[in-house]
Amino acid sequence: MRPFMILAFTLIFSQFALVPAFSQVPEQADPLQYADLADLSVDAPIIVYATVKEAIKVAPERAPNAPPGTQRFYIIASTQALIRGQGGVGETIRYIIDLPLDARGRAPKIKKKPFIIFARRSSGGGDNVQLVAQDAQIAWTPAREQRVRSLVHELVARDAPPAISRIASAFHVPGTIIGEGETQIFMETETGSPVSITILKRAGQQRFWAVSLGEIVDESARAPVRNSLLWYRLACFLPRQLPADALATDNMGNAQQARSDYQMVLRDLGNCPRSRQP
Predict the structure, then answer these.
(1) Residues near 148 by Cβ (< 8 Å), separated by ≥ 6?
(2) Is 93 in contact with 115 (CB distance < 8 Å)?
(3) CA 28 from chain center: how many Å?
(4) Are the CB atoms for 167 and 246 separated by under 8 Å?
(5) If you ran DSSP here, which 8-state letter would residue 135 be given?
(6) Helix (H, G, I), strand (E, B) or coil at 105
(7) What residues form DSSP beta bridges with 170?
(8) What string of pLDDT tens digits covers the 278 residues of the chain?
């Protein structure tokens, strides 16, 4: 048994998320996108690879808020590996889950099956955790574990890109030569750390854009790689239109160019596919 530091939590049925489990899926056909895993990982201070030891049915009278068509279970799981969690977790974790019933009124069997659990600490004590979302238990595969570990590595890095709160300002400055110009877009973030996008156009060249994380626009900055944390922060949360109140100009031509450059950035980022709701 691997050594893990024990955490204390109190089990309060009503405060746990109502969680249908993802079904086991072949790795090559994994429906979970990068954004799905990022949504769960960002909200989860505890991420554990665990195997279900016991799935104990909770009587309906003790689960009056369980969604229709589900069966509530009290889960006791063995910790196999801690993926994220300052302070560690115990060798056993416990949580509540509502499993969807099939056409025959039967819940899926999850005993002895491995899962990745996205959870948060509870305030009371014990080894209970609260799942962060209704679907914060996903079937474990080696590939999924590696994907989550890579994502967590990005999240906890000292230079991790912060979550975008809003676009604060944007403006376009024409160059001295016709066809040249520069657009800058400044964003406010949840941490207060600055993030900016610069779009450059030189005569006879295609537009080029990059993201800077800091007060000074980094000349070595580049556009983010798809399925990276910086890409997720932008592609999944930037508004589809440049907000009118962010345009710091009274020149219609410059404002239109800023909007055009912003749309180019969105096209290059591409869509943010999800198979679940964040």
Answers:
(1) 37, 41, 47, 83, 116
(2) no
(3) 21
(4) yes
(5) T
(6) coil
(7) 185, 247
(8) 333 332 322 232 333 333 333 334 444 578 999 999 999 999 999 999 999 999 999 999 999 999 899 999 999 999 999 999 977 889 999 999 998 899 999 999 999 999 999 999 887 667 999 999 888 999 999 999 999 999 999 999 999 999 999 999 999 999 888 879 999 999 999 999 999 999 999 877 888 999 999 776 666 678 999 999 999 999 999 999 999 999 987 789 899 999 999 999 999 999 999 998 65
Q: CB-based contacts of 170: which residues, under 8 Å, 6+ apart? A: 183, 184, 185, 186, 242, 246, 247, 248, 258, 262
pLDDT for position 265: 97
Give the Cα separation of 143 and 41 in Å (integer): 16
As given in the structure block, the two tokens for residue 216 are: 């000074």
CA 278 – CA 271 distance, rounded (Å): 15
Kind and range of the H or E element at 236?
none
DSSP secondary structure letters along 186-230: EEEETT---EEEEEEE-TTS--EEEEEESSSPPTT--PPPTTSHH
> Tell me, what amino acid is at 258?
A
DSSP letter assigned to residue 103:
T
pLDDT on residue 73: 94
Closest of 170, 178, 167 to residue 251, by C-alpha: 170
| Residue reference for tokens 């994502």 | 151
In terms of Cβ atoms closer than 10 Å to its own Cβ (0-12, 13-18, 19+), residue 169 is: middle
Phi-psi region of 123 (alpha: psi -120 to 50; beta: other; left: phi over 0): alpha
Instruction: Tell me the C-alpha distance between 112 and 93, whole Å.
Output: 14
102-107 long-range Cβ contacts below 8 angstroms, 24+ apart: 107/70, 107/71, 107/73
With tokens 């993201």, the residue in question is 211
Q: What is the pLDDT, as a whole number, of residue 14?
A: 32
